[in-house]
Write a structure and sequence with these properties.
This protein is α/β, with parallel strands linked by helices and about 425 residues long. The protein has a 9-stranded mixed sheet. Strands 5-6-7-10-9-8 form a 6-stranded antiparallel sheet, with helices on one face. Strands 4-11 form a two-stranded parallel sheet. A hairpin with a 2-residue loop joins β1 and β2. The chain is globular.
């Protein structure tokens, strides 16, 4: 499938996209509040060359080309929601978004002991003017303190403090709760601890699940192996920004959320060798990671002396990146060379890439993904992949009892070439 050097951006300018053009009526009853009993029993919509088929995830292997390469996001959801009770009885809820401190690896922050600062959303912030809040958690009476440090434009900075030989990961496990999305309007249940997590989750750091992967089971991986379909893993820590509504009239007024990616040299080298296959991204997060790697390779090619490689919201639509016309093979080779020059065996950095109509895909040929909210950047990504057919697909799903959003059903979409 290595023909991306001939692709150019379409005439659509993503900055001028009106988000109202990407809406649809989603009845509340179509939002899945609970997962199905079996992960792989969820319905699967298959779209290719204008044709729609239906099946279930258990049979997804039957719909993949023999020469496929599946890329999964192995991030692990942390218990990012912590509730503190004030002396007056009022509840203040802290929703951890991302570390406030500069980091080289997420694991560094998650392993910190004693104190850590995070960006957070605060429910009941008006009731918490100053001072510390203290919560007692677990049967041993584990104590966690939190103080308000600073108010940012769209969040707060809070500092957690605790006593004892606990990492912050262990603190969250003791004190936190599963951060179900805001549209799942119910209290968390014991089952959510397992089900709002992929079976291959390893690297802690997400505050939202890479939901396309929730449908995959050991049995599916066994079938993939039997068909000699290779799989590989990247890490993108999903932030709460994935649920951030687009409030601006056009995308120019919307600030895309930035997320941390962590990819090994070995993975990029393997990906380079697989470009002749159908590259299937399992989830929008895996897709954003793959496409970001291409553009980081372009930046490395244009300026090998760069100390860091990050992708901002609009630069892939602007010169000099837009005009580079590097093939995927050339871009990934340049990225590997840059990593060698900087003695890196892992690439840990941030991407703010916005994939919307007008974007030309460089790596991914197909995507496995759930059904997304109206007027969301995730829906824009789907529209970038399959054009206006997104309307036909979503109408089909609504008319044929598909379940929507994180705990809902999903689709296998072949990207328009």
């Amino acid at each position: 499938m290595e023909n991306r050097s001939e692709r150019f951006f379409e005439m659509i300018d993503p900055k001028n996209i009106a988000i109202l053009d990407y809406t649809y009526a989603l009845p509340q009853e179509r939002i899945a509040l609970h997962p199905l009993k079996e992960r792989d029993e969820s319905k699967l919509l298959i779209y290719k060359n204008g044709e729609i088929k239906e099946d279930i995830y258990k049979n997804i292997v039957d719909h993949l080309p023999q020469e496929s390469f599946l890329v999964f996001n192995n991030t692990k959801v942390i218990k990012a929601r912590i509730r503190f009770q004030k002396n007056s009885g009022g509840i203040v809820e802290i929703f951890c978004l991302e570390p406030y401190e500069a980091i080289g690896e997420y694991s560094t922050i998650m392993s910190k002991k004693g104190s850590v600062r995070w960006k957070a959303m605060i429910g009941g912030a008006s009731k918490w003017k100053e001072g510390e809040l203290t919560g007692k958690f677990n049967e041993a009476g584990f104590a966690l303190r939190v103080r308000l440090v600073e108010k940012l434009t769209d969040a707060y900075v809070v500092e957690f403090n605790w006593v004892g030989d606990y990492s912050f990961a262990e603190v969250l496990e003791q004190a936190g709760d599963v951060p179900l999305p805001p549209y799942i309007k119910r209290k968390t249940e014991t089952a959510d601890t397992e089900r709002y997590q992929t079976i291959y989750a390893i690297d802690e750091g997400s505050v939202a699940a890479p939901t396309a992967g929730l449908h995959f089971t050991k049995e599916i991986f066994t079938k993939l192996a039997a068909k000699n379909i290779q799989t590989a893993f990247v890490t993108l820590h999903v932030g709460a920004g994935t649920f951030k509504p687009v409030k601006a009239d056009t995308m120019l007024g919307h600030e895309m959320h930035s997320e941390w990616i962590d990819v090994s040299y070995e993975f990029i080298d393997n990906l380079l060798s697989q470009l002749n296959k159908t590259i299937v991204s399992v989830g929008t997060t895996s897709l954003r990671t793959l496409e970001s790697l291409y553009w980081m390779g372009v930046k490395a090619k244009l300026n090998p002396t760069l100390k860091q490689l990050q992708i901002t919201q609009w630069e892939v639509y602007e010169a000099p990146l837009k005009e580079s016309n590097l093939s995927a093979k050339e871009a990934l080779a340049a990225l590997l060379l840059w990593m060698k020059l900087h003695s890196m065996d892992r690439l840990v950095t941030q991407s703010q890439i916005l994939i919307a109509p007008g974007y030309s895909f460089k790596i991914a040929n197909a995507i496995v993904t759930n059904f997304h909210q109206p007027q969301s950047t995730l829906l824009l990504l789907v529209a970038a992949a399959i054009g206006n057919q997104w309307k036909t697909i979503y109408n089909h799903a609504l008319e044929n009892d598909f379940r929507f959003l994180s705990y809902g059903d999903g689709s296998l979409l072949i990207i328009n070439q």
